[in-house]
Amino acid sequence: MKVFNFGSINIDKVYRVPHLVQPGETLSSRTLETVLGGKGANQSVALARAEIDVRHIGRIGEADQWAAEQMQAAGVDMQGVEQVEGPSGHAIIQVDDEGENSIILHGGANQSFDRQVLEQQLSEARPGDWVLMQNECNGIAEVFDIARQRQLSIAFNPAPMTDAVRQLPLAHCDVLIVNETEASALAQSGDADAALAILAERYPDTRLVLTLGARGAMLQYAGEQLREAAVAVDVVDTTGAGDTFVGYFLAGLLQGLTDRDALQRACRAAALSVTVAGATPSIPTLADVDSTQDD
Description:
Helix content: 25-40%
Structural class: alpha/beta
């Protein structure tokens, strides 16, 4: 079983600041790092480090081959990644002394797809394979359609949330992973429990996972609700924690874990990721995650 991850590849510029910059304020950063990022790239690396066969479908600018090389070194199949003219997607990230972040995205090459390209990139997918998507690339609706035609299982993480997400055929998702903001926007309810109940009624055949940051995560499926507390750790940088969770949760399902065990392992992986600076560099290996199981 293979995962085809249609997702963004970003060049992250990470600035360490004492606090997140306020309107009208000019703030000097202590450090600047330029690293591989993007929700798509992060989730592909998380899947690969969780020992899943994952092929990334994406695009980068011609000047950023180093980013593709880093993903490949992490174990990601990069046959579906093309280099194009123009800039790669990139992000300006502030990280404060509490480990919280603020992010500005520019789509770049992530916004350059058309249906013909996507059909070609998914031509090797077979019934029973998975397609994973986030919401940092254009062409999401087309990939939903192609996946349904090819009888692929669909996992979707609609981040960042936009109005267009509501128009997608989300009932066809096998797995839908949302944070509180995304769940509230989809369900039009500000309460996490109420939002999850609304989405469960709307999408009864979908595994719904709600991430709650420092409060852990919830899962609703087949009439059962699970709750998992977050692991207490010393936070360095929360960037990429959600992507680590997504990759490890999906990996758990594909590896035959129960929903509860997949949820628990994803929470442990996310907790480990926030103890290290950066997005992709912080994603732990399966061995590291499993070593924390009895801590």
